[in-house]
Q: What sequence folds into this?
């Protein structure tokens, strides 16, 4: 029995040779058989004279070039190139506008305008004609419409109709005022625009109705993201404005459906049949389809239970609803919006389904709509001062109707002036929803290219002004700080503040254990804040609470075990790292703890090239490179996010490398330069508050060579006796596995990365201090 494994092992080489022999016989025999059949087939072809031999006049290279050229302009190749270009442009402009603290959607819209005839088409007409040939535009339009249908489905799902019940009175008054007032202003504006800018043959009624609707719309998705990012979602003001936007969207889209019916029918009387059918369709969706979907949603609410057949039921509902709405004459987008509204109200279900749909709709297909809109937007048509005056008038009327109408109505129902102005600024956000309305009007022939361009500029302006308007309102109504004697006394007490910025719950728990080691015996003079920022695109009002709980629950459990009071800070953000840096700098914490991971640019040629490109795209890094303060090619010590925090945070920073960290009792502190003096401060805290033992490794005898270091070491040894151990051995001889934590300065870490990269692979959990 004991020898049987040996017998089996001895047979493995023989079995391997059999497999190799069989493999080569199989492949060789198959290739030989194929060549034989082809040879016989050519003989058969020549004998039958079916395909007479034609000698090619082109050389092999020219023939290949012709084929490649044909492939290059093939409709599918053009479409794929368009999608690649559009997504890259949308990402680049979205990133730029996030840096400006603006919604990414503004950058994506501008990317579309830049790729259109207003810029690329104007200055590079040949390239524009190659990338966006006229024959390819229908394909682009259809794909963008699919993206819009999915997006409107998500918008409908993100509307929580339950909130209308609790805030019905205030929300309905404000939201309807924010529709009626700008709608009236829009109708009045249409009176002055009609003779000069309405398309030939278009009656005043459809033209004025579309101008009125365009003035009345609010971009609910953009508004919801801004409310989340400004941490208003859990306030009464945030709940109210979300409710107002929800009521606004429902009302505005119902009005738009009626307007489309009137435009297509030609008169109100003939449109009454369409409107009647639309009412029947809505009632059927609400009272027949919705209860059925609710039963399905309640039964299959979890992510694991949503099988493909169940998902298919909801997608079929979406497509059928869009199809019926298009047949009735109220547009497929209204059908998609309606399908989203009647989806099961179960928050878990909606969160899961939104996640399934949103990435494809927003990342892949929606940018196509922005570019298609940009291809239609010809800003060069506004080549006269009169046209620009008309554009300015449209913007003024739009802002006055929406902003003032919402703000004054909010003030009338009892809101403070500050809250009223915030509501007005948010309701004035138009964004993508405005473009949807404008494109519908353009497709129906109600808007001319000139008025379309003016309205697109108005949509961009009113969306762009939201952020600065909110900042100005908050600045104007900021609370004045009174520096009382008690405040001054508390400030002098100098509480040690630690800010933990974590990504995953596990990293948060590990960093909390480390933070506890610094403050364990002096909790009364310390504060810990745990910060997690999540991408705005990953949360909505249905999953935001669940996500916050799942992220913070493990960390709060650890805090309870450690008997620590931890303040949590959770915030959606468009640009996470700049936001972390801003929060850290504003709180003026005494230690910012962040985790790290390996750089995505490290390890491959393409990765190194992209890493170099990313460095050169950042102005401050480019300046340091050009002034020889930073080398062009530099080893990536950390991932891009961590490095950005190191470069820009103005508070003491600790970069934590977690290797199954559990405690901080045995500390290793290598002494390699004057920069390590700052690390002594944190070593003292670990000894004082956690009774840790710190081993100082002075392998270059800096204690004798540098008086400042020698003094610090002697003071530590005198103060803590046996808890400070001094060694003069080589770092390579130190058994690293005996230590819980390596404590090192950022400068020393860089030196070790260059001189002892192999040694660093075996380090324990590490805290790198950058003062």
A:
């Amino acid at each position: 029995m004991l020898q049987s494994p040996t017998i089996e092992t001895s047979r493995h080489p023989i079995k391997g040779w059999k497999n190799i022999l069989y493999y080569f016989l199989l492949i060789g025999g198959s290739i030989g058989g194929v060549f034989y059949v082809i040879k016989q087939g050519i003989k058969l072809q020549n004998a039958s004279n079916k395909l007479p031999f034609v000698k090619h006049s082109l050389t092999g290279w020219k023939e290949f070039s012709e084929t490649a050229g044909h492939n290059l302009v093939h409709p599918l190749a053009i479409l794929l190139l368009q999608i690649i270009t559009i997504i890259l442009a949308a990402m680049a402009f979205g990133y730029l506008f996030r840096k400006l603290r603006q919604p990414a959607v503004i950058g994506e819209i501008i990317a579309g305008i830049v790729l259109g005839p207003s810029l690329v088409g104007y200055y590079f007409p040949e390239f524009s004609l190659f990338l966006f040939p006229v024959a390819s535009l229908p394909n682009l339009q259809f794909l963008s419409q699919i993206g819009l249908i999915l997006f409107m489905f998500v918008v409908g799902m993100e509307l929580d109709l339950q909130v209308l019940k609790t805030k019905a009175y205030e929300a309905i008054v404000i939201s309807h005022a924010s529709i009626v007032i700008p709608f009236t202003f829009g109708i009045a504006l249409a009176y002055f625009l009609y003779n000069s800018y309405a398309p030939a043959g278009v009656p005043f009624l459809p033209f004025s109705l579309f101008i009125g609707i365009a003035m009345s719309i609010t971009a609910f998705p953009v508004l919801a993201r801004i409310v989340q990012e400004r941490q208003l979602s859990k306030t009464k003001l945030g709940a109210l404005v979300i409710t107002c936007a929800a009521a606004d969207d429902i009302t505005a889209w119902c009005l738009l459906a009626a307007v489309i019916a009137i435009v297509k029918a030609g008169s109100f009387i003939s449109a009454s049949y369409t409107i009647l059918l639309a009412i029947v369709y809505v009632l059927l969706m609400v009272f027949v389809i919705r209860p059925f979907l609710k039963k399905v949603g309640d039964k299959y609410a979890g992510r694991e239970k949503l099988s493909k057949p169940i998902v298919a039921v909801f997608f079929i509902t979406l497509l059928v609803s869009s199809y019926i709405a298009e047949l009735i004459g109220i547009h497929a987008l209204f059908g998609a919006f309606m399908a989203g509204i009647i989806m099961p109200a179960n928050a878990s279900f909606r969160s899961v389904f939104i996640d399934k749909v949103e990435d494809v709709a927003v990342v892949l297909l929606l940018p196509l709509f922005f570019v298609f809109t940009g291809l239609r937007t010809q800003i060069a048509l506004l080549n006269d001062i009169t046209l620009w005056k008309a554009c300015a008038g449209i913007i003024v009327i739009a802002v006055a109707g929406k902003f003032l109408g919402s703000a004054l109505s909010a003030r009338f129902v009892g809101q403070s002036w500050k809250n009223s102005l915030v509501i007005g600024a948010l309701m004035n956000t138009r964004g993508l929803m405005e473009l949807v309305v404008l494109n519908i009007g353009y497709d129906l022939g109600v808007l001319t290219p000139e008025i379309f361009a003016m309205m697109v500029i108005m949509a961009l302006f009113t969306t762009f002004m939201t952020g600065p308007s909110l900042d100005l309102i908050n600045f104007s109504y900021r609370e004045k700080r009174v520096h009382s004697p008690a405040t001054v006394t508390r400030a002098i007490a100098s509480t040690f503040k630690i800010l933990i910025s974590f990504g995953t719950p596990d990293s948060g728990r590990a960093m909390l254990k480390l933070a506890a080691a610094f403050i364990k015996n002096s909790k009364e003079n310390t504060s810990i804040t745990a910060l997690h920022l999540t991408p705005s695109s990953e949360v909505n009002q249905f999953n935001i609470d669940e996500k916050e709980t799942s992220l913070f629950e493990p960390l709060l459990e650890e805090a309870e075990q450690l008997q620590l009071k931890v303040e949590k800070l959770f915030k959606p953000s468009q640009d996470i790292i700049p936001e972390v840096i801003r929060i850290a700098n504003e709180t003026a914490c005494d230690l910012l703890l962040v985790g790290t991971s390996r750089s995505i640019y490290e390890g491959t040629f393409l990765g190194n090239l992209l890493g170099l490109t990313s460095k050169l795209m950042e102005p401050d890094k480019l300046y340091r490179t050009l002034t020889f303060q930073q080398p062009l090619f530099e080893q990536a010590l950390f991932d891009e996010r961590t490095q950005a925090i190191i470069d820009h945070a103005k508070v003491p920073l600790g970069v934590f490398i977690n290797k199954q960290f559990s405690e901080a009792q045995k500390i290793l502190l290598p002494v390699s330069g004057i920069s390590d003096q700052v690390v002594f401060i944190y070593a003292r805290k670990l000894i004082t508050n956690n009774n840790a033992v710190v081993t100082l490794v002075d392998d270059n005898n800096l204690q004798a060579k540098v008086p400042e270091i020698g003094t610090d070491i002697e003071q530590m040894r005198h103060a803590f006796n046996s808890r400070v151990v001094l060694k003069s051995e080589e770092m390579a001889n130190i058994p690293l596995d005996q230590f819980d934590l390596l404590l090192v300065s950022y400068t020393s870490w860089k030196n070790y990365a260059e001189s002892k990269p192999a040694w660093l692979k075996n380090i324990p959990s590490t805290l790198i201090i950058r003062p």
